[in-house]
Specification:
The structure is a single chain. It contains nine helices and twelve strands. By secondary structure, it is an alpha/beta fold. It has a three-stranded parallel sheet with strand order 1-2-3. α1 packs across α9. The protein is elongated, with a radius of gyration of 20 Å. It starts with 6 loop residues before the first strand and ends in a 9-residue tail after the last strand. The structure holds glutamic acid.
Length: 297
């Protein structure tokens, strides 16, 4: 990897407490940062109040601390960044790189890609508008886990950066905040890979340098569904942190032997930093939770 100091992050949405899938994502980004002597920053993505659960932010941060996944610096809260987001939307509108859209959900029913109706027939900027970003060309990345990925933007389409209710879209906030925090390495779940071309498009319009990406496989249930707050994945209980750690490491293809396990939680974590590599996860998109083999001691 390059000589530029590594700056990574974990950026949970506080829509509920951490579950096993999000613990694995946190651990992977932490191990990757620490094994590169990098910084691991924390950002709470609380820009969508209807999706948030009271107390979730504190619960997430407490579990991470209990698991000794200590972040560097202070926590960034997206809810406190709205002025910057608005300034960016205004700039993109002024440059003609974004435009107001009046299309209702009903009008767009049946379209998988936005048909550019308002790009062709620009409405006046009004209270009832969302704001869409113009997309063009093809984006290509070499993901450290998923390999070469490319997206022709005509298959992605112009997308919303500010909703009709004036809330800012995740795509906008994530790009601006990764830039603000100096993030140059993103390790996150495979489920977010499909958002990456939108983020790359935004970075191109804003003249920002993309980070390097590693999209780790997501943990799924027997029915193939990702573990999530919506399908009631149980919250992590930090009283059993060693067994959670061993299982999360097994999901990441790390298997500490008996003597490492016997030396206790902090030593297992240190061992994991020294042994972490994303290579065994190459091209994997999903890991069924039931297939995770925990080494017995
Ligand atoms: N906030 C997103 C989530 O909790 C993660 C965003 C990202 O890592 O880019 O799924």
């Amino acid at each position: 990897m390059s000589l530029i100091p590594y700056v990574g992050r974990f950026a949970p949405t506080p829509s509920g407490p951490l579950h096993f899938g999000s613990l694995v994502a946190a651990l992977a980004s932490y191990l990757d940062a620490k094994s590169h002597q990098g910084q691991w920053l924390m950002r709470i993505e609380d820009i969508d109040p209807p999706r948030e659960q009271a107390g979730a932010t504190q619960a997430i941060l407490q579990v991470l601390e209990a698991f000794e996944l200590f972040w560097d610096g202070t926590v960034m809260y997206q809810s406190q960044q709205e002025e910057r987001y608005q300034a960016c939307v205004d700039h993109l509108l002024k440059e003609g790189l974004a435009y107001p859209c009046q299309c209702s959900r009903k009008q767009l029913k049946g379209h998988t890609v936005y048909p550019n109706s308002c790009r062709k027939n620009l409405p006046a900027l009004g209270a009832e508008c969302s704001i869409r970003l113009k997309t063009e060309g093809t984006f290509v990345i070499k993901d450290r886990i998923q390999g070469l990925c490319q997206w022709p933007m005509d298959q992605v389409g112009d997308f919303i950066i500010q909703r009709r209710d004036k809330l800012f879209a995740y795509q906008l906030a994530v790009v601006l905040d990764d830039n603000q925090q100096g993030i140059n390495q993103v390790v996150r779940g495979y489920d977010i890979l499909e958002s990456t071309p939108r983020q790359l498009q935004l970075m191109q319009h804003l003249g920002l340098t993309p980070p390097t990406y590693a999209h780790i496989p997501v943990i799924v249930q027997a029915n193939g569904q990702k573990l999530s707050k919506q399908n009631l994945a149980p919250a992590i209980n930090s009283h059993q942190k060693q067994s959670y750690l061993i299982k999360a490491l097994a999901a990441l293809q790390l298997f500490p032997d008996h003597s490492v396990q016997a030396s206790g939680y902090s030593d297992i974590l240190r061992w994991a930093i020294a042994h972490w590599s994303p290579d065994p996860l190459s091209n994997k998109q999903q890991i069924p939770e039931a297939d995770i083999v925990v080494p017995s001691i």
